[in-house]
Amino acid sequence: MTTDARAARRVIRRELHPARTGPAVLVVALLLIIALAVPVLSVWALFDPGLRAGLRTVEVPQAGSPAAAAVAASAAVLLVLAVLLWAAAILPGHRNRRARIGDRHALLVDDGVLADAVSERVARRIGVDPTRVSVTAGRRTMRVGVVPTSGVPVDEAAARDAADAVLRGVGFRSEIRVTVAERGAVS
Question: Which of 19, 47, 51, 152 would you label with 5, given CA atoms 20 to 30 Å apart?
Answer without folding.
Answer: 19
